């Protein structure tokens, strides 16, 4: 018996609401709250049509801490799932602390005026959450999220010591547009236009954006060109996986996608610096977001599969070994189930499972936590049951 408030009614919020509604034994009461009420209403109507279950909706501005705190005090939920944007992380953590509510999100805080996402702002809340007797679970999506849990699972069951981790994210789907991003365009473009970074022998190494790539042979989706990027789970995993020597993150992009992005970047359309346009201050990337297809609209058009996993090398019983632990997800199957493509699906399902881990008590502890710090077994079990089955493949040493 638990009441949950889901904040954010975009592509991922839609999946979280559907999946929480499916797990009716855990999430007995659901309120979907966001800035645009009509988006919440449309999702609620779809859940009613698909599952025959009613959820409530509400309009909130999560940047307004006082109003959100009052909303939480009135609603008295057990947990808030923050599925809005990274900019809302700190305001929502503040509101949860003030109202005495546990918190979960899928992406780390990023100040709107600076393309710099880091855990430092949220880790600074550790003591506050401990003292308030509340829990915050950070990064419960796929990457970060499931990838962190995969590493913790490999550490627990496959290795005495992990030496290197390569996280690989392949989207082999096709939506038929010349250019579109699979999740919030502003967040996506900010992530891939900044310099790449990886961690080796205790140090961060920086590379020019998209300058290092490899052809990786993925299970099911085959060979794909994967580019080295900085991704937020590197920051916590390099601290929490003991003995680690190197960790990198790779994401696949088609040549067509990269060409479009390069042109947009060259003409200044990806800049976050506001410019004066007819007397109005406007950040080019925000304007770009307005003209690109809404990620939520990609669902009905996208075909193909994603494959995301961790290629891990380490020692077991005195011998070196290498595994790839991964999930494959099909865009069309996701759409049939929850009216969404696989990118939002692979993020939304783990957010629901993270919520389930907190509410069932399996992961519940005061403080601010990253995913790999908690027991991976119950989470891995739920992935198999809730739509994201995983496999482990032994690989030859490279
Ligand atoms: P969308 O832009 O599609 O949706 C964001 C939603 O948040 C919208 O409904 C938006 O409202 C709402 N919102 C924005 N600001 C506020 C506010 N101040 N108050 C209330 N609601 C607000 O994004 P996605 O669904 O694609 O992504 C959601 C989150 O998931 C992001 O943080 C993203 O970084 C994260 N993510 C994580 C991944 C992972 O694997 N860990 C992968 C993909 C995404 P409105 O409709 O009015 O704009």
Automatic annotation (TrEMBL):
Its transmembrane ranges are none
Query: What Pfam families would the database entry show?
Result: Sacchrp_dh_C, Sacchrp_dh_NADP
Species of origin reads Cerasicoccus arenae
Q: Which residues form the Saccharopine dehydrogenase NADP binding domain?
A: 4-137
Gene name, please?
A: lys1
Its lineage opens with: Bacteria, Pseudomonadati, Verrucomicrobiota, Opitutia, Puniceicoccales
Domain Saccharopine dehydrogenase-like C-terminal stretches: 141-387
Instruction: State the name under which the record lists this protein.
Output: Saccharopine dehydrogenase
